[in-house]
Amino acid sequence: MEELKEKLKVQLIAQLNLEDITPEDINSSDPLFGEGLGLDSIDALEIIVLLQKEYGIKIEDTKKGKEIFQSIDTLAAYITENRK
Amino acid sequence: MPLHYFESMNNPVIRKYVSVDNRSVKVNGTGLLLNEQGADFGEFMKQIYHSCSISYLKFFKMDPQSKLGFVAAKILLQDDDRDRFEPEEKAIVLANSASSLNTDEKYFESINDIPSPAVFVYTLPNIVAGEICIHHNLKGENTFFIQEESDIQFMVSYLNILFNTTSTRKVIAGWVEVDLADNYRAFLMDVEKENGGESQGNFTVDFIHQIFKL
C-alpha cells in the first residue's frame, strides 16, 4: 500500500502539473482539495481520468467521489479494493 | 455609424506596453529578458515566471496561449495601482489570427484515448482573457477578436468607442497568439482614458504600428 501511495503522488504531480511540488511535500493524510493541495473541479475530473487509464477503475457513483478523493490514503485504499 | 467617427474624440494614453516572443520579453521596447539559450516555449515561460517572481500555481495548468497572455499581462500590470479604477471600469480587448487552434489540435489528438478535461477547458481563444481578468480583477468589457492579421486601425477605433460610450477607463489591449506551428507572440498595451486636459495622447494608429513592430 505504501508503494502505491508513493506512485500515486508522482502520478498526481505529473497529471495535474503541480509544478514545484515534490512527492515528499504531500502528506498521505492531507486533504487533496481545498486547504490541502488546493485542487479544483477540473483536477477532480483529471483524477477520474487517471484512475480509468492507469488502474482500469471507473467511478460510476459520482457521490462517492468526495470520500474517495479525500486524501492519498483514501485514494490508495479505493484503488486497492477496486483495481482490475 | 462608421468606426472612424470615434477617432480623436478623446485622449487615451498608452501607459505601458509589453511584448513577448521566442527571442525576448520587452517592456516599452526595451529588453527585460532575453531568451539567450533558445529555450523552447515551456522553458521560456518558466524562466519568465520565476524571473518575475510570479506565484500562481494555476499558471502551470494553463494552455500555452493562456500562459503567454498571463505572463505578458503580469509584467504589464506589475507596478499598476490596482485600486485606481473600479473593476467594472477595467476592460480587456484581445485579438489573434489562430484562435485556440494550438490547443484544439492537442485536444483532438487526446480524444483517441480518454480526452483530457484540463485541455478541453482551454479550447476557446477567449480563455486567456478570462485568466487575466480573474487574476487582475477586471470586470468590464471582455472581448476577443479573430482577425486574419493584426488590425490596429480597428483596435484603436474599437477602444475609442469603449472609452466614449461606456464607463471604461482602462483597457488591456493587444495580440496574444500561439499558432499551430507553435510560433508565439504577445503584445499588450495598458491604455487609459485621460480625464480632460490637452495632453498629446500617444494612442494613435501610427504609434501603435511602430511599437507593435519593435
Task: Briefly say what this structure is.
The complex is a heterodimer of chains A (84) and B (214). Chain A has helices at residues 2-15, 41-55, 65-68, 72-82.
Describe the structure.
The complex is a heterodimer of chains A (84) and B (214). Chain A is mostly helical. Chain A has helices at residues 2-15, 41-55, 65-68, 72-82. Helix content of chain A is 52%, strand content 0%. Chain A is globular and about 30 Å long. Chain A contains 4 helices and no strands. Chain A has a single domain, classed as Orthogonal Bundle (Non-ribosomal Peptide Synthetase Peptidyl Carrier Protein, Chain A). Chain B has one domain (3-213): Peroxisomal Thiolase, Chain A, domain 1 (3-Layer(aba) Sandwich), CATH 3.40.47. Chain B has 7 helices and 7 strands. Chain B has helices at 41-51, 64-76, 101-110, 117-120, 127-136, 152-165, 205-213, and strands at residues 12-21, 24-27, 30-34, 90-96, 142-146, 170-178, 184-193. In chain B, helix 1 (41-51) runs parallel beside helix 2 and helix 2 runs parallel beside helix 5 (127-136). Chain B is globular and about 55 Å long. The A-B interface holds A 16-20, 38, 42-43, 45-46, 49, 52-53 and B 46, 57, 59-61, 113-114, 116-118, 121.
